[in-house]
Amino acid sequence: MGIIQPPWSSETYGFAIAPFLLVLLPFLLLCILCPIVLLRMSRLRLPPGPPAIPVVGHLHLISKNPHHSFCELSKRYGPLIFLRFGSVPVLVASSPDTARQILQKHDQIFSWRPRIAVSSYLFGGKDILFSQPGAYHKLLRQLAFSHLFGNKRLQSFRPIISSEIRQLLCNVSHASNNVFVREKLYESTFSIISAMVMGESTKKINFHSPKGQSLVAALLEVVDLVGAFNVGDYFPLLATLDLQGYEQRSKAVSQILKVIFGEVIHERRNDRENRDNKMEDEDFLDALITVSSDQKDVPITDSHLVGILTDIFAGGIDTSAATIEWALAELLKHPKTLKKVQDELSLVVGSTRLVFESDVENLPYLRAVVKEAMRVHPVAPLLLPHAAREQCQVYGYGVPSGTLVYINVWAIGRDPTVWGNPLEFYPERFLQSNINFRGQHFELLPFGSGRRVCPGLALGISNVYLMLANLLHVFDWVTLGEMDLKEKFSSICKLADPLVAKVKLRVPRYLIEENTK
C-alpha cells in the first residue's frame, strides 16, 4: 500500500482522501467519547464480562448467531453478563432466575424498547412492538385484546380458522410432487390473520402494490430487517452513512407497506360511510379506524395504522409458520417420536374426521412435542430487545440507564442445570411437568413474559397445535434426503434450508375436500 499524500499536495489527492476522512472522523470522535461513557459506567459495580477493546467494545466476540455467542460467554462469565457494543451498554440474561429478575421483578424498568434505526424507518415508533410504555401502547394492547386476542373473539374466529386449515390440507395434498412446507404455512397463516383482522371480505382485497410487490414478501423483509445487526445502532456517528444499506431497504419496504395498507384503509373508510350501522360486524380494522377518528388525547394517524397492521401480520404469519416447521422437522428426524404422535392422534381422533380444537386437551404427547420444539428452537431466541429506562440494581450489580437487554431463551433451553440431556429432542420430559409457555415459568419463555409478553400468545399457540395436529393426522411424511437443522438467525429464527417433503394421505380424501373452495 502506498503512502497517502497530504490532501494539500494536489486536488486529486484531496478528493481521493475525502471518503476516507468521512469514515475516519466518526471513529476519532468515538475514541474521545467512549472514555467519557466508560468513566461514568466505571462508577457502577457492573455485572461480569470479558475484556473490551477500545471503540468496538465486545462486538468482535459476536458471531452471525449472537444467541450462540452469548451462550458461550455466559458459560464463562455467568448467567448475567455485561457487554458493550460500540457506545451501547448491553446486558444478557441466560438463566431462568436472571430472566425473572428482568421480566418480573424489574419489569417496569425493563419494559422499554431500544430505539433502533430500522424500527424508526419502518414504523416511527408507531407500532405495538416498538412503542414505549404509556397511554398509546396501553390503548393498542387493549384494542388488540378486545378485537383479536380475547377469549370471546377467539371463539368467534374458530370457523374461519377451521376452514383455512382444511384449505391448507387440501393444498398440501394437491402438491404435484414435493411439498414446500414453509410456503404452504405462509399462505395459510396469512389467510387466517387477514380474515381475522379484516373480515371475510379479505378474499376480495388486493394485497399487492401497483408495481406488483406482494404484502407477504414485504412483511418477511420487515422480519429480516428488524433482526438485522445494524452497525449504526452502536456507532451513532456512523448511522447517517448507512454503510449496510438498512436505511435504504427499510424506507423502500415501508413505502410498499404504506401503499398496500393505505389502499386497504382507504377502501374500508369508504365502505364504512355506506354502511347503515358502522358497528355491525366490526372487525379489528374497523376498530382501529373508529379509534383513529375518535381519539383526541392519543392521536392516531394512518401511519400509526400501517405500523399496527404490519406488527399483527408479520408476527402472526412468521412465528407460527416457523414453529410448525421446526416441530415437523424434528419429528421427521425422529421417526419413533413421529409415530407416537400419530398413534395418539389415531386413538383420540380416529380416521373419520379432522382434529378439532376440543381434541387438543386430550393430546398430551402432541402438546409435549410443541413445547419441546419451542424449548430447542425458540423462534425468537433473544426475544425482542428490552431497554433499561433508568439506572437500577440487578443481583447487586449496577445497570446503567439506556442499557440494551437481551433474554437468551435459546441458552436457557439448553442449560444442563435446568434440563436433563438438553440437546436431545425428548418430548417425554413434559408429560409429567406443569411447565407451560405463558410467561410464569422462566425455564420456557418462547413468548416472553411481563408487560411485553406477546399479546397474541393464546391465538398463536392454539393455531400451532391445531395446524400441526392436522398435518400429522392427515398425512404420512417422508423427507427428501438427510435432515439438516441448521438455523438462520433473525428476529425470527428459521431453518436455514426450508423443509421440503413428500406426503401420503392417512385419511379419506373427502375429509379435507369437504367445503373447500
Automatic annotation (TrEMBL):
Record-listed heme binding positions: 454
Keyword Disulfide bond: no
Database matches in CDD domains: CYP71_clan (cd20618)
Cofactor: heme
Keyword Cell division: no
Classification via SUPFAM superfamilies: Cytochrome P450
GO biological process: secondary metabolite biosynthetic process
Domain of life: Eukaryota
Gene3D superfamilies the record matches: Cytochrome P450
InterPro entries to which the protein is assigned, alphabetical: Cyt_P450, Cyt_P450_CS, Cyt_P450_E_grp-I, Cyt_P450_sf
Sorted UniProt keywords: Heme, Iron, Membrane, Metal-binding, Monooxygenase, Oxidoreductase, Transmembrane, Transmembrane helix
Chain segments annotated as transmembrane: 12-39
Database matches in Pfam families: p450
GO MF entries: heme binding; iron ion binding; monooxygenase activity; oxidoreductase activity, acting on paired donors, with incorporation or reduction of molecular oxygen
PANTHER family registered for this protein in UniProt: CYTOCHROME P450 98A9 (PTHR47944), OS09G0441700 PROTEIN (PTHR47944:SF4)
Protein family: Belongs to the cytochrome P450 family.
Protein's UniProt name: Cytochrome P450
Lineage, top ranks: Eukaryota, Viridiplantae, Streptophyta, Embryophyta, Tracheophyta
